[in-house]
Amino acid sequence: MSKCSKYFIPISAIIWFLMILIIHCSLLITNCYSQWVIQNSGTPNHFYDVFFINTQTGWACGNNGTIVKTTNGGSNWFVQTSGTTFPLQSIHFVDSSIGYCAARVGYTIYKTTSGGNAWFTVLSTFKAFESIYFIDSLKGWASGTYNGAWVFRTTNGGISWDSVMVNTGAGNHVYFFNSQTGWVAAGGSMFRSTDGGVSWTEFFNSGGGDIAEFSFVNQNIGWLVILENWQVYKTTNGGINWVVMDTLPDCFNAHSIYFSSINTGWVSGDCGNMFKTTNGGIKWGQQNTSGSGFLSSVVFVTDSIGWSVGGGGRIIRTTTGWEYLTVISDPNVIPIDFKLYQNYPNPFNSMTKFKFQIPKISFVKLVIYDVLSKEVDVLVNEELKAGSYSVEWQAINYPSGVYVYTMITKGYRETKKMILAK
After folding, report:
1. Is 214 exposed, middle or buried (0-12, 13-18, 19+ CB in 10 A)?
2. How many CB atoms lie within 10 A of CB 8?
3. Out of 30-34, 158-162, 171-175, 344-348, which region has the weakest mean confidence (pLDDT)?
4. Is residue 258 within 8 Å of residue 223, measured between CB atoms?
5. Please, what CATH class does the domain formed by 326-420 belong to?
6. Dihedral Cα 331, 335, 340, 344, nearest 10 deg
7. What residues does CATH 2.60.40.1930 cover in the chain?
8. pTM of the prediction?
9. Which fold has domain 38-318?
10. For the chain, what is the mean pLDDT?
11. Whole-angstrom Cα distance, residue 76 to residue 220?
12. What is the 3-state composition of the chain as percent helix, strand, coil, each rounded to the nearest 5?
């Protein structure tokens, strides 16, 4: 016998090991369908903000005057000429042509009327601009910092501006719901204006950390996140009162919060951290972004389609809102037909699960409607491999009643009823 024979491994054992490895990897791949996908930005420069006007057209801005644009949902990004090398902190478009961009260093606000093909200066002042927002082509606001937090306002598309000092903090973020009602985060405080930004009233103070960002879905309901401790607060009366919802696991700093509807929202920050809620901020789940660099901004155009940008020119996209699908069958066992099962439990209180199967690679959409046929949530909206799946629905913030859910694929559609009983 050879002296090496004691290291001999039977072929059958190798085959068995490889089969186990393949099955394990298949399960991992299948369970990772609904995730953030990296897009090629074409630049290594850090990004600080991203904005989309629809599911196809958007812009991102960042270091060295970098502005990139996409017209196909981010499949391709191309660099635009901003005319500056200053770091660009915030970008906002009112339509496909008119947009504004603000520089923190350089103290300048730029405007385009050609979709970003050319930019020109509309304001240059000794303030470090952090955020800019317009409700139409004429009315807009910008928040900045210099010996205190300032809000600048224009009513003629940037031709002229007036300004007001809000407090001694830093003007981190500004947003207006309409021409009169808006909010600004200044240091650890939230201020509200009801006269178009002429005057501001403080309604919240964190007592410590700065407010990274806030997000409102209507005139009354909004959320904010604290930069240092990742605490999320919610208001239901227009920012007059705020209640702590949750404290997320931290990694240095939180940077951005965005809610696409009253139940669905995201928080991004350092270390590639991304958290999602589907119950208005009561419970948050951490998501896999396949990276560890900071994510400075997150934005969604629906409850499922969104982008986030950050360090090193990183742009990531999801088309599902990152709903985690669980595989509930052997990946080697392929269903023979399409099938949507009855949800369980049913009736249910706050949470229920849906099971479905597909016999081949298919684009699957699983939608929940109320009794008036109004779409209330989209649980699945992506291409899946053949197999059996399970996905849950958190309905904590939905009223009791009868709902229907529909599974839609090419050539197949099925609808079932369910009862939410609280």
Report:
1. buried
2. 9
3. 30-34
4. no
5. mainly beta
6. -50
7. 326-420
8. 0.73
9. Methylamine Dehydrogenase; Chain H (2.130.10)
10. 88
11. 37
12. 10, 45, 45
